[in-house]
Amino acid sequence: MKDYDFAVIGGGSAGFNAARVTANLGLKTAVIDGARQLGGLCILRGCMQSKTLLYIADALHHAKHARKLGLKVPRASADMKAIHARKRRIIGEFASFRREQLKGGKFDLIQQHARFLDAHTVELGDGRKLRARHFLIATGSKVSLPNIPGLKAAKCWTSDDVLDLNFLPKSAIVLGGGIVACELAQLLNRLGTKVTLIQRSPNILRDHSDDASTVVQKAFVDEGIELFAGTALHSVTRERAGFKVTFVHDGRTVTRRAAHCLNALGRSPNTGGLKLEAAGVKARADGQIITNRWQQTSAPHIYAAGDCSGPHEIVHVAIQQGELAARHAAGAKGLRPVDYGLLLNVVFTDPQLATIGRLEDDLKEAGTPFLTASYPFNDHGKSILMEANYGYVKVIAAPKTGRILGAEIVGKDAGELIHCFSGPLAMKATVFDLLKAPWYHPTLAEIITYPLEEIADQINDT
């Protein structure tokens, strides 16, 4: 039996960065990861894979619609085998670098699964045991399988399957309307697949504002995606020629068939095999581990970070949580909890959807007064000449001081533009501070000045 100061279960973004911190602080550290491939969800089956493919689909979409710009592109189509090969090469390089980091770190890498025997001991997949003064659980998430008749037996695709395609599906039904569902539905549609998107909630991207989701939804419909929102899924059936999905929409029963079906109905914490109860770690009904502001679980020497504990499934948040847990376990002074008031979120659809800070619904629920102003992309010079007319920029600020509280951008390169607010928000800047800065003309970023000016005028007029 080996003893450690700090043992991490899971070698993804949260776990790797936590281990790196504790090892550098002098703690004897181990990373336990029993995955077939090292690297974590983001690299192997998530962010980097999907963004590689989305960028390709974006380029193909512009080529197909080049006539709007006065260009003649005789034929543009997807070579799926070439796309697949390029993606595998790029992701292979990312994964190789992460494997080198894990194997060459100042910590022990143990490639085994683990489950708790007691609060300080885990049993590895090969029967060995390991003890630690502190643990960090960073086991990520897995695809959910909701209780919909026929869904389990149908064996639908998951995001893993779509991200590893080397052929172009003729048609596909996408179940879900969250970030994964929307990004992959548009990806398939732009590559040339006939796509039907079926969402249970009244709007796609339900965790975002109605205004934002409505813009993306309109873009989807305009591109030819058949979209049903506000549905009740009745059944999923696998047939000889593909899949049949039956659901209720606007009070009537609807059936759609396609060659393939993607289950993108969400993800759930990957904690089922850990035997948390043996360690005294409490979790919610869905398996999500309960933590305090220092990432401690109900067993204070055991921490959790990333998708397995939430509250947000975002890589940079997982890293912040993991590093905070590591420093807290090491007894570092002057620590501060993760500030979710600075939460940054990006959806890589086209138009992109990006938010930062506190948004209107949050502020209304808290009874916090605010001012807001927005400006549309279809009235901005640079976006018009780029044929990027979907969306808007919205700024939210305090009514007396003009301090920026949050921002929402739907439109071209929103994921890049939202970072115009990252520094100012962290520094508690005001709209007046941002208006002192130079904004080059003509740029997309320049659009941000219009809502800033409107809020400044509202404050100056009071």
- Which CATH C-level class of the largest domain is it? Alpha Beta
Total discrete domains? 3
Care to count the β-strands?
21
Strand content: 15-25%
Main β sheet profile: 7 strands, mixed
Structural class: alpha/beta
User: What's the architecture of the largest domain in CATH terms?
Assistant: 3-Layer(bba) Sandwich
Measured between the Cα atoms of the first and last residue, the distance is 70 Å
At the fourth level of CATH, the homologous superfamily of the largest domain is FAD/NAD(P)-binding domain
Structure description:
It is a single chain. By secondary structure, this protein is an alpha/beta fold. α1 packs parallel to α10 (315-329) and α3 runs antiparallel to α4 (80-103). Helices cover 33% and strands 24% of the residues. The radius of gyration is 24 Å and the shape is globular. The protein has three domains: 2-142 and 268-329, FAD/NAD(P)-binding domain (3-Layer(bba) Sandwich), CATH 3.50.50; 151-265, FAD/NAD(P)-binding domain (3-Layer(bba) Sandwich), CATH 3.50.50; 341-460, FAD/NAD-linked reductase, C-terminal dimerisation domain (Enolase-like, domain 1). The termini are far apart. The strands form five sheets. Strands 1, 2, 3, 4, 5, 6 and 16 form a seven-stranded mixed sheet that branches. The model has no long low-confidence stretch (mean pLDDT 95).
